[in-house]
Amino acid sequence: MTEDDQIAVLVGNLPPEIHEDDLQDAFEGLGYELDIKLVREGDEDRVTAVLRFDGMTRNVADQLAGRIKGRVWQGRTLNAYVPLFMK
User: Fold this and answer.
1) Rounded to two decimals, what is the model's pTM?
2) Other C-beta atoms lying within 10 Å of the C-beta of residue 64
């Protein structure tokens, strides 16, 4: 699939020791192909994941982000949203 067939969900405040495999394991049961990119900017303690799902609708992505936001994972309260500027 191309980027035009994907929608992104950004997940922030992840622990610094996070790996792509951890996120793959957490989201593989959703039924969508998933591409994961971890972004470590400036302070290594700040990690954001860009999760790109093939074929997911905006509505489903918004619901997923809503379920992630505020959850505590490995001692961190997660942030999540679907950006308007990227699919």
Assistant:
1) 0.87
2) 21
pLDDT-derived band at 57 (thresholds 50, 70, 90) equals very high
Cβ proximity of 78 and 7 under 8 Å: no
Tell me if 1 sits within 8 A of 33, measured CB to CB. Answer: yes
Cα 56–Cα 53–Cα 14 angle in degrees, nearest 5: 125
Distance of CA 87 to the CA centre of its chain: 13
d(CA 68, CA 87): 18
Q: Which of 66, 69, 2 is nearest to 33 (CA)?
A: 2
Q: Retrieve residue 87's tokens.
A: 């699919």
pLDDT computed for residue 44 by the predictor: 77
Contacts with 47 (C-beta within 8 Å, 6 or more apart), sequence order: 12, 13, 14, 15, 16, 18, 38, 39, 40
